[in-house]
């Protein structure tokens, strides 16, 4: 799980697998194949200051746990999920978004930058020993 970014024995894996809980306590956005209706990927959207937000301020939305299945990569599902989250944040009248990403997630960084997100190194943080996270943000 997590393409090697997350240890299979990590407690974080349980959170990743519990989509029902994430949908109840935050918002779960899902990308579906338009023809087969199969799930291509999903992302959790949290408002800053809530239990699911790590670094977003109360006026921001935060992406969490963005994942796209290996077979669906390159088909635009990840970008569609980020765009949907951006639209939802605007609907909620949030001023922007901020979220964490691992340094090795280069393909995701390209999507974020293409959509107007910028690196915000003064907000980078360490989630646990050896898990350094970079922050991207955008203001609407």
TrEMBL record:
InterPro entries registered for this protein in UniProt: Acyl_CoA_acyltransferase (IPR016181), Bact_Acetyltransf (IPR050832), GNAT_dom (IPR000182)
Record keyword Glycosyltransferase present: no
Pfam families the record matches: Acetyltransf_1 (PF00583)
Residue ranges of domain N-acetyltransferase in the record: 1-139
Keywords of this entry: Acyltransferase, Transferase
PANTHER family assigned: AMINOALKYLPHOSPHONATE N-ACETYLTRANSFERASE-RELATED-RELATED
Name of the protein this chain belongs to: GNAT family N-acetyltransferase
Protein species of origin: Kitasatospora cystarginea
């Amino acid at each position: 799980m997590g393409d090697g970014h997350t240890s299979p024995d990590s407690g974080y894996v349980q959170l990743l697998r519990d989509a029902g809980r994430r949908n109840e306590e935050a918002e779960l956005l899902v990308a579906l194949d338009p023809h087969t209706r199969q799930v291509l990927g999903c992302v959790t959207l949290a408002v800053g200051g809530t239990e699911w937000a790590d670094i977003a301020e109360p006026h921001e939305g935060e992406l969490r746990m963005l994942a796209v299945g290996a077979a669906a990569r390159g088909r635009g599902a990840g970008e569609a999920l980020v765009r949907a989250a951006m639209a939802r944040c605007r609907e909620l009248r949030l001023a922007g978004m901020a979220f964490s990403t691992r340094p090795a997630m280069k393909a995701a960084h390209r999507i974020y930058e293409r959509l107007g997100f910028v690196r915000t190194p003064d907000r980078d943080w360490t989630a646990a020993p050896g898990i350094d996270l970079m922050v991207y943000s955008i203001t609407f």
